[in-house]
Design brief:
It catalyses: L-proline + NAD(+) = (S)-1-pyrroline-5-carboxylate + NADH + 2 H(+); L-proline + NADP(+) = (S)-1-pyrroline-5-carboxylate + NADPH + 2 H(+). The chain is α/β, with parallel strands linked by helices. The protein has an 8-stranded mixed β-sheet with strand order 3-2-1-4-5-6-7-8. α7 crosses α12 and α8 packs across α9. It is elongated and about 70 Å long. The chain contains 12 helices and 8 strands.
Length: about 280
Amino acid sequence: MADSSTLQNITGTILLAGAGKMGGAMLTGWLSGGLDPRRVAVVDPHISPEITALAAKGVALNPDVTTVGTVETLVVAVKPQMFREAGAKLKSFVSDKTSVVSIMAGTTIASLAEVCGGAVVRAMPNTPAAIGRGITVAVAAKNVSAAQRAVADALLRATGSVEWVDDESLMDAVTAVSGSGPAYVFLLAEELARAGVEAGLPEPLATRLARETVAGSGELLHQSELPSSTLRQNVTSPGGTTAAALGVLMAEPGLRDLMIRAIAAATKRSKELAN
């Protein structure tokens, strides 16, 4: 989670552009981690009642560039397709001392620097960030200072774990694996339930069994230090029911081949969408 000491030591303004689900989750994490609400400003044409309520705590809503103060970090959480239009307006908030942290999929460091300016950190979170269990991968431009990177790291950790890479080209595969990954897990729960119905279970029971099994297994994976392969083997008795099912899933071509092709397709599409 967020480094509260770093959050508490922030002296400039953190400007959040876009306070939707992901931006809102980050903001909640920042404030829970000890960031002074008076250090936060939000720019969004559609402020939700939940965000509006934070104004009473000192969060500035849609401030003018002349009143916002020195923006230490601009966090861009708008939809990628809106970035060109929104980014041009955000540029007026950016000075040569501002770092720009983007959580937009498919938006390169070069594009961010061109539209917004500043020292750019490109990050890819995922939707479990909404419950503080996300994972984010980030890459920093060469002009990002150690201090700016530390602040970016603290802000991103407000919604879960953070990994840093040095090669921006890895971000397309990151998007395919962790950015899009929750959808694959949700699909697994869907299809596990559907298969349970086909095996004769009532649909409500099959759905509950599938959801709780996926959620519980994920939590076990989270808490255990064992490799996922070992956890799988621990469930699998030789010649038993699990082994019979895995014989189907692990056959050639099986789940491994399907997942490789799925990740390749998502990676390819991420590259195509990059701007």
